[in-house]
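hi support,

uploading two proteins for the ticket. first:
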Amino acid sequence: MGFHNTEEAIFTQPLDVSTYNTSLKTETSTTITIPIANVTSTKCSTSSKKNFTNGLTNNHILRHSFRTSDAIKTLSTTPSTFFKNNNSVKVECQVRARIPTSSGEFFLHLYRNNRDNKEHLAIVYGDNIRSNSLDASRPGENEMDRIIRGAYKGRLKPGQIKSDINDDDDSNISSIQLPPPLVRIHSECFTGETVHSARCDCGEQLDEAMRLMQLEGHGVVIYLRQEGRGIGLADKLRAYNLQDLGHDTVTANLFLKHPPDLRNYDVATKILEDLNLSTIRLLTNNPDKIEQIEEAGIKVIERVPMVPIAWQSNHNSNRIGKEVDQYLKVKVERMGHLLNIPETLLHIDNI
């Protein structure tokens, strides 16, 4: 299928979206009309918010919010006796299992919720972090039922028939004072994580978060099924084609009638609550993510930056590819992400 509007179906120049001017100091609302393929009226707002730099960035003093949380809230079609009140987000851990890897092991928790039919995940490092909804007794279940859905303590052994067997290592966990855990709230990215696309750094961020948590011995990656910053894989691929025509990731989303970032973290905060994590150290460059988490009652005592390997030292666009440079630069300049742009890129408008 092609465009119905043939007059301006092909274009090469990036659209001028003046809403994302980082010099704005007051809350504004701008309507942008894009006269191509009948795309009209995308509204975005920019507001001044508190800064989460931890002294590690000097690129931004403003936080740019394009949150449209209500847009992705849908009624659940999954019947459940657990979700009796649809007025607030509820989550339940259905099952967990031990996942061994070459660098260690973690427990993978699978969650359901009353807002969508997606299987959101929690990658949990450390036996001290447990799910309340997983451990809770369920009507009619026996010990083997609890073991099969992962509601056991310690490590399973062949022939085990009880779920609540104290492991020798478990007895020492409560006596160890651990710092608030590292938490990464990560949105699914098939292109970056599975096929290793160089258009983004998502796969690198996930690997680095898991590496840091493995080193510390405890932490959580909440893996949300929000492909393409919430627009889905199909529109994400359409956005890639628009980028090849000269548009950046923000303008491409606007052309497809999406805000620059459609993600929502309601489910993530409920998963944190279920894991008894009220105080965390958050691995992120996104101030909007911090604000949403804190508004839900989770205390973020530290922002731990996710600095791309390509931008850490000896920046070389020829080595890492110009597309990831452009992607990261747009996230800083047009979406307010907290990163220091390498000196070699500061005065380059079109990489």
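and the second one:
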Amino acid sequence: MLLSNDSVIYKCDTRDLSKICATSMSRVRHQQYVNLSWKMRDGSLKGLFCTAPKSIRSVRRNSGSFNVTAFTEEQEALVVKSWNAMKKNSGELALKFFLRIFEIAPSAKKLFTFLKDSDIPVEQNPKLKPHATTVFVMTCESAVQLRKAGKVTVRESNLKDLGATHFKYGVLDEHFEVTKYALLETIKEAVPEMWSPEMKNSWAEAYDQLAAAIKTEMKPPS
């Protein structure tokens, strides 16, 4: 049985789906073994889904094979390299990041209480830069730690609180997409000499995993 995505093919014996040999197609000599946990939804392989590690985002069956979305070692290296170059200017980049969000979706300002009732121009609001910096650094550090931690982790917070806050203020799927685009554009402008399709895909995958983790926790208070 083959489990594959664009860069990795996962081979496994159907009698032991918890042990998978992952071979990088871009570097054939590189191999790593990954232990996964599996559950059966309905007693058949059609109901099979992966529960760990969380850096493997999804497993879908497709015509007798499984498509796996994972955050690879190569992606981690690209994210770490670019974040090391950016973090000394994280405050300024964070402000650009949020201003880009509001440029694309002006209505997003209504999600922030310190903006929606303020007469001060957005870029001059004293509360914007500290908040933007917190979000930007949290997002980037979550990406950096994703593969090592084996799951999404967030700085100075937890996913349950983040999910509750996003639910409370009515954050929608389109807001996550706008934020993703603004993040990628901000990073592209910050490290143009490093930017590549591979780096773009690396940051996009890390962000998608963070967004998915937050959405999972977006629910009414129990």
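thanks. also noticed: Confidence is low (pLDDT under 50) at residues 1-41, 45-54.
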